[in-house]
Amino acid sequence: MNILLQIIFYFFVSLFTLIFIVQTYLALPRKFKTTYAGKYTPKTLVIVPSRGTDYSMTDNLKSIKNQKNEKFSIICVVDSEDDPSVKNIKEAGLDYIISNYRSGGSGKVRAIATALDRFRDFEVYVVADTDIRASPDWLVNLIRPLSLKKYGLATTFPYFKSVGNFWSKFKTVWGFVGRGMMESKITVFGWGGSMAFRKELIEGKIGEFAQDVSDDMAITRICKERGLQIAYVPEASPE
């Protein structure tokens, strides 16, 4: 029995060591060489699922509103008129709708599905979280790769600034790991805080998408199923 426990112990030690080594390698700073040029201005809808309140939420929403893009609209999606986020949305001068899509997925997925189902006449859809602070070029940079048909999804990843406690520092470390994953074609994924995709990606898939728990994992899976690539755009990283 003692031998069995030792084997189990050394197995998990080896496993966690391997995970640590892989994550450390992914987090190593590398020069990301891919750049996306040109002007791309499709009719774009930015979908902002909103629930509760976030730190500086009104200012965050205003930053999403104040973009250089010439052809975009924003719609926030809330669970109800009583949701605390409605106050921030009104302060930012944005429109909102009530989430009502029949969904077996998470609240965020249901909110996104509601907007996708209701607003079908846009060429590109963008999902943005209420806790990001976007630069004026955020949207222009984020959607630019979608001018190339080989990309089904464009995304970015934030840098987390530590503010003191352990979990804040842990999130900062995860930020480096996440960025490292984004720079590899093997591990890149759609980050739900800022991701953009063309209408064709989600056509015929809204019902399937609505059953998922994770919006970013679902969109990433659909993109790969369609044989399309994911573009990582560090220039679109939230401030």
Helices and strands in order:
Blueprint: H1 2-27, E1 44-49, H2 57-65, E2 72-78, H3 85-91, E3 96-98, H4 107-118, E4 124-128, H5 138-143, E5 151-155, H6 166-182, E6 194-198, H7 199-202, H8 206-209, H9 215-225, E7 229-232
Parallel strand pairs: 1-2, 1-4, 2-3, 5-7
Antiparallel strand pairs: 4-6, 5-6
Helix pairs in contact: 1-6
Distance between the termini: 54 Å
Quaternary class: single chain
Mean pLDDT over all positions: 87
| Helix proportion | 40-55%
Question: Looking across the biggest beta sheet, what order are the strands in?
Answer: 3-2-1-4-6-5-7
- Silhouette: globular
SSE string: HEHEHEHEHEHEHHHE
Strand percentage, roughly?
A: 5-15%
- Give the tally of β-strands: 7
Give an account of the 3D structure:
With 239 residues, the protein is of the alpha/beta class. Helix content is 40%, strand content 15%. The chain has 9 helices and 7 strands, in the order αβαβαβαβαβαβαααβ. It has helices spanning 2-27, 57-65, 85-91, 107-118, 138-143, 166-182, 199-202, 206-209, 215-225; strands spanning 44-49, 72-78, 96-98, 124-128, 151-155, 194-198, 229-232. The chain has a 7-stranded mixed sheet, sandwiched between helices. Strand 2 (72-78), helix 3 (85-91) and strand 3 (96-98) form a beta-alpha-beta unit. Helix 1 crosses helix 6 (166-182). The longest helix has 26 residues, at 2-27. It is globular and about 65 Å long. The termini are far apart. 39% of the residues are buried. The model has no long low-confidence stretch (mean pLDDT 87).
